[in-house]
Design brief:
Layout lengths: L9 E5 L4 H12 L3 E6 L2 H13 L3 E6 L5 H15 L4 E4 L14 H29 L2 E6 L12 H21 L4 E8 L20 H11 L10 E4 L6
Parallel strand pairs: 1-2, 1-4, 2-3, 4-5, 5-6, 6-7
Length: about 240
């Protein structure tokens, strides 16, 4: 792909230190975007940013807890002050918890819902006004096929992703008049550190790069095109 495709654009990716988030940042940087990597832990962010810089990409690492409104607003203020714009927001940060819902602690429930759903609300609230001011942009929310299908022993995670899908479809209608496309990407089992995927064969699972490839396609749509949802499944059931 042509590295100048996203030249001059600024992308913010949450949960960017490793796994799917790191792959997305590297993809967007390879297309010419200046990427702001954010997450709760600085070291993996810096590692990914250094890798991008070594490949002649442009990346900035910033710590941010998407479940904390003040932290998200601080990030948005920094982006506005540093770049004066944001063109792409990828809401990728996510956590999971396994086990039957009836034994789940309220604290564990709050952690999953606050990160996976409330965090997306906070980020859209903070960054969408910047996109509106500059005349458009892309918001890509990384969901899951668990937001389409039952997930035994992962009810809180599924609930957060079903909620994220509903949020995405609805806010897409709110923002499309501002030339902002909101898309949701729902991968199946991806071989990452997020979940052990008990009983699945890692070699048959999706890779982080597969999700990043789809995000790259979404942010390169022609002006008249709007892909609102992408489902990604492994070729073979793992």
């Amino acid at each position: 792909m042509d590295k100048s495709t996203l030249e001059g654009q600024v992308a913010v990716v949450t949960g960017a230190g490793r796994g799917i988030g790191a792959a997305i940042t590297e993809k967007l940087a390879s297309l010419g975007a200046t990427v702001v990597l954010c997450g709760r832990t600085e070291k993996p962010l810096q590692t990914t940013a250094s890798r991008i810089s070594a490949n002649n990409g442009s990346a900035q690492a910033r710590t941010c807890d998407v479940a904390n409104l003040a932290s998200v607003q601080e990030l948005a203020d920094w982006v506005s002050k540093t770049f004066g714009r944001v063109d792409i927001l990828v809401n990728n940060a996510g956590v999971a918890d396994s086990g039957p819902l009836h034994v789940m602690t309220p604290e564990a429930w709050e952690k999953v819902l606050n990160t996976n759903l409330r965090g997306v609300f906070y980020c859209i609230r903070a960054f969408a006004p910047m996109m509106i001011q500059s005349g458009g942009g892309h918001i890509v929310n990384i969901s899951s096929l668990a937001g389409k299908n039952p997930l035994p022993n992962g009810a809180a995670y599924a609930a957060s992703k079903w909620g994220l899908n509903g949020l995405s479809y609805s806010v897409a209608e709110e923002l499309r008049t501002h030339n902002i496309r909101v898309s949701v990407v729902c991968p199946g089992s991806v071989d990452t550190e997020l979940s052990p995927h008990t009983g699945k064969t890692p070699s048959k699972m999706l890779r982080s790069a597969d999700v990043a490839h789809v995000v790259g396609m979404l942010v390169q749509q022609t002006p008249q095109s709007f892909v609102s949802e992408v489902l990604i499944r492994p070729t073979q059931k793992p």
